[in-house]
Amino acid sequence: MELINLAAEGAIEGNLNTIGYGLAAIGPGVGVGILVGKALEGIARQPEATGVLRSNMFIGIAIVEALAILGFVLFFL
């Protein structure tokens, strides 16, 4: 009987980890959306600054995605 209880506890823990990672992925998704939207607004307002805005946008996306990867790694711990 104890073996069944231990298996059930592990299943619940795994499901909570999945839900936790799903919630953690919402933040970077919203962050990338805002970041790209603001960069496109800046490019539309000042087309001559496209190069600077685009490079800063890609750096920001890389940082935000690093947070998503960190959440994915913590999902397995």
Provide the fold topology.
Layout (H helix, E strand, L loop, with lengths): L1 H44 L4 H27 L1
Helix pairs in contact: 1-2
Describe it.
Helices cover 92% and strands 0% of the residues. It is mostly helical and 77 residues long. The chain has one domain: Up-down Bundle (F1FO ATP Synthase), CATH 1.20.20. α1 packs antiparallel against α2 (50-76). The longest helix has 44 residues, at 2-45. The radius of gyration is 20 Å and the shape is elongated. The two termini are 27 Å apart.
Helix content: over 70%
How many individual domains?
1
Order of helices and strands: HH
CATH fold-level topology: F1FO ATP Synthase
Name the CATH superfamily classification.
Answer: F1F0 ATP synthase subunit C
Poorly predicted ranges (pLDDT <50, ≥5 residues)? none
Strand share of the residues? under 5%
Distance between the termini: 27 Å
Query: What does the largest sheet look like?
Result: none
The total strand number stands at: 0
Which value, in Å, is the CA radius of gyration? 20 Å
Annotation field: number of helices: 2
Shape: elongated
Give me a quick take on this structure.
This protein has 77 residues and is mainly α. The chain has helices at residues 2-45, 50-76. The chain has one domain (2-76): F1F0 ATP synthase subunit C (F1FO ATP Synthase).
